[in-house]
């Protein structure tokens, strides 16, 4: 009798375990959700997340709380989110850096450790100088770099960040020899130009649009092979450095993802709420007013393909510059 009772209990436990994920998914969401932003407050990613979160909350139907976990180029916050259960209650509002975590040896994780929801938006990158700069065009800047190898100075935020990658692309593909110095953050890199410490930099267009409008900063080119959406008079960088054509566009978008293993029904509900949020007029207004470009048409597995291509370009640029801690080849990342 006891043996039969134990078998019955075991059968119930097994059945409960099998049915639990489906039952859980059907009840999602039943409590608040944490939106992890692996960057500090006030940055490009955080600004977008704080507009997205209340819209996401509106369509998900439960409170959405932002948790900033900055550090190690986004690795600390990403690791934090990965350590949480794969239940859809911890969602990552990521930037691009998981594509190079392993190469830079800051984390074992990559985008493939998460279920992709969608790309969201990005802020175009430009080449900019101070208003009193002698460079009126990008061609002027390139000409002076070639005339004075190693003398023209460039500022960027930090190793492996967008400005650093852009500088390396210009050096490697355009055969340009200039001095590149990290300043510990995008704002500091901008101030270095305005203060005359360096000659040029590569900020996000949305963060400097007021400087450009007031004449406190001069934009020379958009870091793309196409013209800027918001400053269409700006030439693409490929007009002066055509060798970069095949490596562009190289955007730095934010995106939404959940931990791999999250039930498919839960992931679908997250995606549904996110889709409604990015279609909301308030999100569209935010993009336009802050000069962001929407990329939410890239979803699911297409998002992973996007980041795979991105990792191929950026990973090998870092490797060829001697900046990468580990070779992309070690992780099966092909050279572009």
TrEMBL record:
InterPro entries: BUG, Bug_dom1. It holds the Pfam family TctC. It comes from the Bacteria. Residues 1-25 form the signal peptide. SUPFAM superfamilies: Periplasmic binding protein-like II (SSF53850). The keyword Transmembrane does not apply. Keywords: Receptor, Signal. Gene3D superfamilies: Bordetella uptake gene, domain 1, Periplasmic binding protein-like II. Belongs to the UPF0065 (bug) family. PANTHER family: BLR1237 PROTEIN, TRICARBOXYLATE-BINDING PROTEIN. This is Tripartite-type tricarboxylate transporter receptor subunit TctC.
């Amino acid at each position: 009798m006891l043996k039969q009772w134990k078998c019955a209990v075991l059968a119930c436990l097994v059945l409960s375990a099998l049915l639990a994920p489906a039952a859980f998914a059907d009840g999602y969401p039943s409590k608040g959700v944490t939106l992890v932003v692996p960057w500090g407050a006030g940055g490009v990613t955080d600004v977008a997340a704080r507009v997205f979160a209340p819209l996401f909350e509106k369509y998900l139907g439960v409170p959405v709380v932002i948790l900033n976990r900055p550090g190690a180029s986004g690795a600390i916050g990403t690791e934090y989110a990965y350590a949480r259960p794969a239940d859809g209650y911890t969602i990552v509002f990521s930037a691009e850096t998981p594509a190079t975590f392993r190469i830079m040896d800051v984390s074992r994780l990559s985008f493939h450790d998460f279920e992709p929801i969608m790309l969201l938006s990005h802020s175009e990158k430009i080449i900019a100088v101070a208003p009193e700069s002698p460079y009126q065009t990008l061609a002027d800047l390139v000409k002076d770099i070639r005339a004075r190898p190693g003398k023209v100075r460039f500022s960027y935020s930090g190793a492996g960040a967008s400005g650093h990658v852009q500088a390396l692309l210009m050096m490697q593909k355009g055969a340009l020899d200039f001095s590149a110095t990290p300043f510990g953050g995008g704002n500091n890199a901008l101030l270095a130009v305005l203060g005359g410490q360096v000659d040029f930099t590569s900020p996000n267009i949305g963060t400097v649009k007021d400087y450009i409008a007031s004449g406190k900063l001069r934009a020379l080119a958009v870091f793309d092979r196409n013209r800027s959406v918001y400053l269409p008079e700006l030439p693409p960088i490929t007009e002066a450095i055509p060798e970069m054509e095949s490596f562009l566009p190289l955007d730095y978008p934010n995106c939404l993802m959940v931990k791999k293993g999250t039930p498919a029904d839960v992931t679908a509900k997250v995606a549904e709420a996110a889709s409604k949020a990015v279609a909301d007029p308030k999100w569209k207004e935010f993009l336009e007013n802050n000069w962001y470009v929407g990329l939410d048409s890239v979803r699911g597995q297409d998002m992973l393909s996007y980041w795979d291509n991105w990792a191929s370009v950026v990973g090998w640029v870092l490797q060829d510059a001697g900046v990468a801690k580990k070779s992309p080849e070690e992780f099966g990342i092909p050279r572009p």
